[in-house]
Amino acid sequence: MTSRTLDLLLVASVMIALPACSGTAGTPGTSTFSTDYSSGYLGSPIDAVLQADGGYLAQEQAIYDFRKSCMQDAGFEFNAPRPSVENLFEDRSPRLKPLLIDDATSDGFRSLMTPSDEGTQPSVQSVEYEANLKSCTLAAPAFQAVQSEEYAAFRRKFFEKYYAFEARYKADKDVAALNKEWSSCASEAGYESDSPGEFLDKYSPSDSALPVIETERSAAIAYASCLKSVGYIEREAPIRRQREAAFVTENEELIHEMLAARYGG
Amino acid sequence: MRKVIVGVAFMLGALGISPGLQTASADIQDCATGYYCHYRDAYWYGGHINGTGNINQFSTYGFNDVTSSIIDDRAFRVFSYVDSFQGGSSICTSAYHFESNLADIGFNDRISSTAAGSTYSTCP
Predict the structure, then answer these.
(1) Are B88 and B54 in contact (CB under 8 A)?
(2) Which DSSP state fits B20?
(3) Which ipTM was obtained for this model?
(4) CB A25 within 8 A of CB B93
(5) Which pLDDT belongs to residue B87?
(6) Is B61 helix (H, G, I), strand (E, B) or coil?
(7) From the candidates A61, A121, A134, A236, which should be mutated to test the interface with B, based on the most B CB atoms within 10 A?
(8) Distance between CA A90 and CA B120 in Å, rounded?
């Protein structure tokens, strides 16, 4: 492991601990990134090693500053939050969110739902605003740096490796054993499901605007109960982290080259 | 087909849209600036759904596990997840970028939900 990759992993371990305000920084490649998965948040070593590079935050802040100034010059307000370490994980919802049995009993699956425009009445700004924002973003020198051919080539190669990793992970014996327990629990409750994700696809409401009905509550209670009895989130998270950390180690040279192509150094 | 792709690639370039992982489109005019769009077929064919914020369940729109290409014509990145409610593996598309064929990166016909932020523009 190079010192740069080690540095990134150590920074990543600290950043991972931030959202949950718990967890301990530790040796990369082990499950010591964090031990508290109660929020359902998975501190992904792959995500973290990519985002932990100081160049990423600096690049995003440079894009932000350029377009804010550009928008103001054009007579528009730009009120988006400035990228920071605190909001680095703004979009990364948990891989698998916990569902409390009390919530399942009262509201079915609804507490799992994030705010959604559901593709119907999006809150876009005026056409002029969006057009200006696009021009201001594309003109930002830091934004253009993301589009270099060298970086694109490395990123593509990285995704090829990542795809292979995902295929391996799906077939992982520890994950398969966990899913077998899940399937058995769901079956005892009267549901056919290979995994929690598949359960949600099958039994959660297709339209969140519809009122909660008894069949949804029953399915949600089964889902919450099996998550708890199998200990799915707490057991799957360290497996995932361990496998991802190994992936980072295996591909450290490619990651190093990819990050260097984007941020220099 | 190749002519169409090259032509559409040119059109995308003219519009300022860049490849997330590589190449080009057709229904580009249907994905308005300020939206992200998920298309049923590669190279932006076959109809699409669009959004500006999160979409929890593509199944609501008959679009579960059918996405083959993506355009993000918003000022912010969008994550596309293989499970509903932003669960499972995800692929990130940067602002004003596109994915022409998700089969190339193992995500074809797997997308079930999205998370669209309003702070970060690019994918890490």
Answers:
(1) no
(2) S
(3) 0.80
(4) no
(5) 79
(6) helix
(7) A134
(8) 8
**CA distance to partner chain A, nearest, from residue B4 (Å):** 23
Percentage of chain B with pLDDT > 90? 28
A71-81: burial string, b at 16+ Cβ within 10 Å, e else: beeeebebebe
Q: Looking at CA atoms only, how far is residue A159 from chain B in angstroms?
A: 6
| Token pair belonging to A240 | 């995932």
Domains along chain B? 2-116 (2.60.20.10)
Within 10 angstroms of residue A86's Cβ, the number of other Cβ atoms is 10
Q: Is the pLDDT of residue B2 over 70?
A: no
Residue of B52, B88, B118 lying closest to A122 (CB–CB): B52
Alpha carbon B86 to its chain's center: 15
- pLDDT at position A24 is 27
Q: Return all residues near B68 (Cβ < 8 A) that are at least 6 apart.
A: B39, B40, B41, B42, B46, B101, B102, B103, B108, B109
A262 chain-B contacts, CB cut-off 8 A? none
Rounded to whole angstroms, the Cα distance separating A188 from A184 reads: 6
pLDDT in tens, A184-219: 999 999 999 999 988 988 898 877 778 899 999 999
Other CB atoms within 10 Å distance of the CB of residue A54: 13
Give pLDDT < 70 ranges for chain A.
1-43, 52-53, 89-95, 114-124, 265
Cβ pair A56:B82 closer than 8 A: no
